[in-house]
Amino acid sequence: MGNIFSAIPDWMISQQGLSTVVWFVAGALVSGSGHYLYWCRALEVASAQHMVVVTGCDSGLGFSVALHLHSLGLTVVAACLDAHGSGATKLKALAGLNRMHVLRLDIRDGASIEEAVHEVHLLLQRQRELKLRALVNNAGVMVFGEFEWLTERLINQQVEVNLLGTMRITKAFCSLIRHHEGRIVTVTSHCASQALPGLSVYGATKAALKAWSDALRVEQAKYGVKVITLVPGSFVMQSNILAHHDQHTKEMDESMTPTDKLFFGDYFQRFNSYLSGLSEVREPTLIDDSTLLKKFEHAILAHRPYAHYLHAPYRYVFYHFLLNTMPVWIRDKLVVSTTCMKLRKPPTGVELGVIPPYPLSGPCHNLFKITLYLSYATTCHYLYVIDGIGKVELEEVNPHLRGGRVENHLRKTTPSSSDRDLNLNLPVLSSQAQHD
């Protein structure tokens, strides 16, 4: 030990010398770490030689990513399900710069996938300077509805597009991506880590995509291929992912048995009415979220991209932290309360509703609700809500009755088609009114 210390200069052993050495080492570590982090986060200069294939470009996220990458100067192959749709037409308008190429792609169809890969291969042959930088797996389908309501077609559609279709298109491009040492960017979802009621199948497909990507990342690393997942957050109002919700609702409703309709009552309609406002086709536009688009940019151009990108407000991060740490029974109650989709179990027997404790007059005379709970057998109940408009007729109701029960005879006036199908016969009810 003495020989070792004898080799150290005296000035380094002194207090001042040790301080100098510590500061030197600390500075080197900070500088090295900063340089490393900068290099990791640094982006390559966007070039027309970088070609990116993006699926699901008809609207929403895919359309926006294609536009953004093109604006950076990259060459983009935008794959659309409808090659003559509004989104494809807008993207084709940029084809004059020879950096935007629009093709039709249905990732459920093997022949369509082969044709798309062939088109990309020809493009790479015609323009030898091009390199396939990335494949962005964005195409996806979302169907809202409890699992029991979903038809087999709606289940298969989500599995075929979100999971199997993504696997098919990735497998078809693997050889080209490996040859160019490119990367695979797959869009997943918050539902991959925290499944939500009403999105059981959608969440299952996204969770499967995440697990598949984690394994694929390790497999492809030795070939120089980077595999990345990106959670984009929610932007439903800026996409068409729920544009067909009303059609899906109709399909689910028509597939229900009379027994199921009796059991679920108006809950099915209330659930879907909550989302019906989102069921409209929106004109494809650039998503108003520059931070999200920057994350796609980083995933594609960074020297050393992250394996996972998460785009979410801090409250989402905190929310998921709570769900992953709290007891299951608390977690489930929190999920139900935050999704605003509670299932009200109708009690047995017949109950006449109570008038709200405020005056009812003028146009509001018949707007209060009376709820009838009709018991059918021992295990099947039907929740029936009469809203006074077309459903029932209320006669001689005191407009200033408060806090009391209605004394009246209810008679069916215009039964709905579903009521006729179920052969419902509402009984005549009366109750003693209490006046102020």
Automatic annotation (TrEMBL):
Q: Which GO terms describe its molecular function?
A: oxidoreductase activity
Q: Please tell me whether the keyword Oxidoreductase is annotated for this protein.
A: yes
The biological process GO terms on file are: steroid metabolic process
Instruction: Identify the Pfam families for this entry.
Output: adh_short
Which keywords accompany this UniProt record?
Oxidoreductase
**Location of the region described as Disordered in the Swiss-Prot/TrEMBL record:** 405-425
Q: Which domain of life is it from?
A: Eukaryota
> Is Oxidoreductase tagged as a keyword?
yes
InterPro entries in the cross-refs: NAD(P)-bd_dom_sf (IPR036291), Sc_DH/Rdtase_CS (IPR020904), SDR_fam (IPR002347)
From which residue to which does any coiled coil extend? none
SUPFAM superfamilies for the chain = NAD(P)-binding Rossmann-fold domains
Query: Which family is this sequence assigned to?
Result: Belongs to the short-chain dehydrogenases/reductases (SDR) family.
User: Under which name does UniProt file this protein?
Assistant: (California timema) hypothetical protein
Organism of origin is: Timema californicum (California timema)
